Amino acid sequence: MSANAASAGVGDTRRWRFYTLAPALTIYLLLALLPIANLLVMSVHDIRWVEGAAQWTYAGLRHFAELPRDPLFRAGLFNTTLFAALAVTAEMVIGFFLALLVSRIVAGRVVYRTIFLLPILIPGIVIGAIWKLMYNPDFGIINQVLGAVGLNGHDWLGDGTLALASVIVVDIWHWTPFVFLLLLAGLESLPQDVYEAAKMDGASAWSELRYLTFPMMLPTLAVTLVFRLIVSFKVFDEVYLLTGGGPGTATEVVSFTIYRRFFTEDRMGYGSAISVVALFLLTLVIVLCLASSRRRARAA
Amino acid sequence: MHAHPGFTAPPLRRALAALVPAAALAAALLCGAVRAQTPTQVPAQIPKVAPITIVINQSPWFSGFSKVVEAYEKETGNKVTLDVNPFAGSAEKQRNSVRAKDGQFDILVMNSAWLAEFYHGGFLTPLNDIDAAFKPDPQVLNYDDTAYWDPKTKSNNAKTGVAYGVPINGNIQVLYYRADLYQNAGLQVPRTWDELVVNAAKLHNPPTVYGMAQRGARSASDISYDWMPYLHSHNGAIFRDEKAGDFTVTINSPEAKKALDVYLELAKKSGPPNPGSYGQAQVIQALVTGKAAHATPVIAAWPQMDDPTKSAVVGKINIAVLPHGASGKTTPTLGHFIGAIPKNIPKERQVAALAFLRWFQTYDAQLKYAQAGQPPIRKDVYDAPFMKTPEYRWTRAVVDSSPNARMMYTVPEGPQIVSVLELRLNQAMIGEKTSADALNTMAAEIHSLMRGAGYKTERLPDLK
């Protein structure tokens, strides 16, 4: 085969790949990128309705300049960061610990796995109702249990110093099973011959965990962490159902601020600007996480 | 006129309850007699029209409305579909429908919270454009002119504007109080907020009973709605004269400070330990579980009070007009609903929608509405004999309060203003801000947003 014929063959393959990929790419562009482009356009406009018709007025970067002065956005950004950091850290630690335990159990593993997965199967609206009742200062089970052992109850959702922590506890309860499930799948797929070799070399359980399990699990841990960070940055339903962002701004989160500004106040331009900033920050966090995990994986 | 605090004795209640069917029968007979005398009470002749869809929210009063709709279908043979949603979901669906090229819904049941947006946005049809002969019934309560709109002055004005809708539910705030506790303590129903502060403190016995339950939470509209009657009845207001187009921000006036101080005093002296997280649901729950001696929710919450499956205090709660401040006038806030017809639906559906609204404002329809436990929108229905029975002991306060009921805002920027009020009032309620600081912050933020929206506006100097 001549060089020209080989080159033509490569060109045909590339063209073939492009043509077969084009429909999926077009659908992706329509479904994913166009709404984001629309969001960007809306974020630099004021949109008002006059005589039943929308009037778009160019606002430049005014909405973005307004953000630092917005008390809800400021509080939302701070609380969301705190929420994501605390909730995801706790979920990763507890989820990894549970996955390790279950991976070493031989009998009844299916039963344990089913029990640990239960919270993730419950719809968010039901979780909100369950925990709102449990946290109720007058008749909630948490205060009743505290009372039974001689401790004072608290207003878990109404006290500004406790409200965010109370919502974080619900998130940990809700999402740890998800972390557990992914990490258990990762642990079960690790090569067993490495462990057998380590045992023959006299490695302790801690050494196995420190030098084998943890480095080999890094890619799974990184993917799980990114998944959880994405979802926790978008937290909405738990806050909406439990506290409505209050008391004061104690549990305000960015998604809730977007909802208020965009829908309740009908400020589509300004709401879009907050969404654009939230999207940018989340993308930045994910890129940094993935880059850091790649560096560690390479080093390991 | 205030309701009677003494109506608590069970034997008397049973005896009176036995009289209700007889009274209802007498009422029905009387209605027939009265109808013959008053032209506005003649039942509307409703033609066979196209099917319609009404978009509405799931509220405590919805069951009463759906019963009336069933009666309409039975009486006229016309078909009505109800698209029922949560409160916020209904607003969102209505917004999407009127902004589309072709509207999905034929009657929008709009809450006072989004009336301004729909009027200013130009989404609705004047009812006389559909039928030049249509006349709003003079017996229908006015609700601060909110069924009328003047497109020139961009204001709700029955004199200069034209009818765009018919009130669907006359939801306003009233004072709920524990009549049995009043009787035991020998108290009189309060006429002023200061008297309420005294009474609430006397009945405050935590954690068994809290003297006062307020909607102190921050939401789309909780604490701001709850506080508004205090503000208005102390001669305070968000703007100097909104109806006349004077948007000088006056929320930080000395009158407003007095109104907020009274509100906070009630919470501090007689409220539950967590007033900043009490929303409407918690207030109603406190009333029906017997944990609140007073509260000021809307009248739509009433049916739960005497429902033995929901209430531990059946027959023990009475209703009175809201107390007042320096103005000497009770000023509840409108949380009512107007039924209106959008522009972007075909003419035949507009005609069908108007047929329903025309029927809905008739005496007979409103009688059925009242019998379903809901506040009728007609004045004359409140005079029906069965409305004088103990079961309907809420009616006097509603009919006495309705003429003074006021809108919270009439500008399309209202939801943004409420967002400011909700946050700053809630911060005052939970002790994060003093009353003066909260009011000054509100004034600065409302002034800024109104100026940004193009209004000519000033603001008062900061309170010390």
Q: Explain this structure to me?
A:
The complex is a heterodimer of chains A (300) and B (464). With 300 residues, chain A is mainly alpha-helical. Chain A folds into two domains: 3-43; 66-299, MetI-like fold (Orthogonal Bundle). Chain A is 75% helix and 4% strand. Chain A contains twelve helices and two strands, in the order H-E-E-H-H-H-H-H-H-H-H-H-H-H. Chain A has a two-stranded antiparallel ribbon. Chain A is flat and about 80 Å long. The two termini of chain A are 44 Å apart. The mean pLDDT of chain A is 90. Chain B is an alpha+beta fold. Chain B contains 16 helices and twelve strands. A five-stranded mixed beta sheet of chain B has the order 2-1-3-12-6. In chain B, strands 10-7-11 form a three-stranded antiparallel beta sheet. In chain B, a hairpin with a 4-residue loop joins strand 8 (239-241) and strand 9. In chain B, helix 2 (62-76) crosses helix 13 (363-371) and helix 7 (193-203) runs parallel beside helix 9 (254-270).
Can you summarize this structure?
Chain A has 300 residues and is mainly alpha-helical.
Per DSSP, the total helix count of chain B is 16
Strand order of the largest sheet of chain A: 1-2
Topology pattern of chain A, helix = H, strand = E: HEEHHHHHHHHHHH
**What structural class should be given to the helix and strand makeup of chain B?**
alpha+beta
Strand tally of chain B: 12
Radius of gyration of chain B: 22 Å
Shape of chain A: flat
* Share in helix of chain B: 40-55%
Rg over C-alpha atoms of chain A, rounded to the nearest angstrom: 25 Å
Distance between the termini of chain B: 39 Å
For this structure, the quaternary state is heterodimer
Mean pLDDT of chain B: 89
Helix count, DSSP H or I runs of 4 or more residues of chain A: 12
The major pleated sheet of chain B works out as:
5 strands, mixed
Topology, number of strands of chain A: 2
Superfamily (CATH H level) name of the largest domain in chain A: MetI-like
